């Protein structure tokens, strides 16, 4: 077991090709989240309570955090940008000549030779682009901006606005138009109902 900069490496676990149940347990262990939502709850005072999977030696079964302290601990678990959290070996290693045959994206050593001139004609930036930002929106957030919500036809991008001042002006105009439309859809105001009092005989 080796530990360095918050990462740990335990090289004593191995699974043979026929040990599918052991391989499944290993994959579940690797892919498990840092915090179990089932054991997470709020106290009546608004503090965060986390139930331990196994009690401490002193008998502690739950730990209590202030909300800000809990968020700080979660933030510490977020890895830094562009840090590889998974290391691949064997045919999945980045420099393996067989990786191109076993990965869905066909990435790996020998890709340039397989795709020939089509690969050579691309710029350095184009080679590093995996998917477009539109495809990322669809895959991560389920937002498909390539299809019109009304007619279900393809959407064509005619401009990309990046100037913050222009963006703020457009959003302000849309907000004002929404308010105006809502005012126009309201029914006309009426006077309060008149109550007539009758004196009994």
> Helicity level, as a percent range?
25-40%
Provide the number of structural domains: 3
The SSE order reads EEHEEEHHHHHHH
Q: Largest beta sheet: what is the strand line-up?
A: 3-4-5
Structural class: mainly alpha
Describe what this molecule looks like in 3D.
- The protein is mostly helical and 201 residues long.
- The chain folds into three domains: 25-79, no CATH class; 88-130, no CATH class; 131-184, no CATH class.
- Helix content is 36%, strand content 8%.
- The protein is built from eight helices and five strands.
- A three-stranded antiparallel sheet has the order 3-4-5. A two-stranded antiparallel sheet has the order 1-2.
- The relative contact order is 0.03.
- The mean pLDDT is 76.
Key attributes of the depicted protein:
201 residues, 3 domains, three-stranded antiparallel sheet, mainly alpha, two-stranded antiparallel ribbon
In short:
The protein has 201 residues and is mainly α. The protein has 8 helices and 5 strands. It has 3 domains: 25-79, no CATH class; 88-130, no CATH class; 131-184, no CATH class.
């Amino acid at each position: 077991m080796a530990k360095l900069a918050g990462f740990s490496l335990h090289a004593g676990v191995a699974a043979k090709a026929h040990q599918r149940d052991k391989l499944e347990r290993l994959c579940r262990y690797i892919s498990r989240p840092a915090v179990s939502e089932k054991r997470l709850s709020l106290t009546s005072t608004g503090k965060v309570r986390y139930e331990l999977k196994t009690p401490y030696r002193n008998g502690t079964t739950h730990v209590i955090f202030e909300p800000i302290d809990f968020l700080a601990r979660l933030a510490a678990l977020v890895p830094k940008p562009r840090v590889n959290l998974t290391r691949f070996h064997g045919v999945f290693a980045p420099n393996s000549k067989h990786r191109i045959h076993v990965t869905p994206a066909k990435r790996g050593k020998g890709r340039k030779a397989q795709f020939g001139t089509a690969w050579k004609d691309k710029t350095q930036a184009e080679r590093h682009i995996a998917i477009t930002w539109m495809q990322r929106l669809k895959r991560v957030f389920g937002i498909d901006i390539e299809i019109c919500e009304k007619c279900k036809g393809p959407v064509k991008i005619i401009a990309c606005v990046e100037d913050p001042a222009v963006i703020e002006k457009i959003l302000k105009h849309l907000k004002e138009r929404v308010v105006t439309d809502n005012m126009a859809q309201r029914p006309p105001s009426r006077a309060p109902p008149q109550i007539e009092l009758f004196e009994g005989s």
